[in-house]
Amino acid sequence: MNAIKSLNRNKSPDTYGVTAENLIHGGEILASYLQTLLNSSFEFCFIPDVIKFGILTPVFKNKGNKNDAKNYRGITITPTLSKIIETVLKFRINPKIICIQNPLQRGFTKNASPLYCSLIMEEFQRENKDLKKETIFVMLDAKSAFDVVKHSSLIRKLFHMGLTPQEILMIDDLYKNARSSVKLNGEQSKCI
């Protein structure tokens, strides 16, 4: 399975102690069991809650006061099996999204760099300067945008992009009943 082969190696084990290497080196028998499990999950558009659990660890950004929570970012370790489901969904959905994506979209796009966008902006500014036209750029700092995504709006957008009902239900189910606990100084909190 391509989804298993594409997992990032040398990462921390998940809540259940499973690493990408366990699945990558698990052989054909494990892959066939996983495929049966995933096929059932996609057939019924259902992701078991047991694989929607993450452990969040605050990591210091190496700047500022260690006592200030703003100087930490959260790293969440999710179950390896959920990463496989996400990867399968990505393989199915990306070709549809790339076809209708704005050609100027550069961030989070394969084989594209935000630097290309800055080049386009620079050329636009130079051309306007030559034509003696005023140029105004409005910039958006979206560094925290993913923290405040309104999932219902995202799901609606996916529907309008032409995703199948099955794909939309699977994405929606990934986030329903998702839980996390916080791990700090060797102690782990209750689920939130």
TrEMBL record:
Pfam families according to UniProt: RVT_1
Start and end residues of each Reverse transcriptase domain: 66-183
SUPFAM superfamilies named among the record's database cross-references: DNA/RNA polymerases
InterPro entries assigned to the protein according to its UniProt record, in alphabetical order: DNA/RNA_pol_sf (IPR043502), RT_dom (IPR000477)
PANTHER family documented for this protein: REVERSE TRANSCRIPTASES
Protein name: Reverse transcriptase domain-containing protein
Organism annotation: Mytilus galloprovincialis
Upper lineage: Eukaryota, Metazoa, Spiralia, Lophotrochozoa, Mollusca
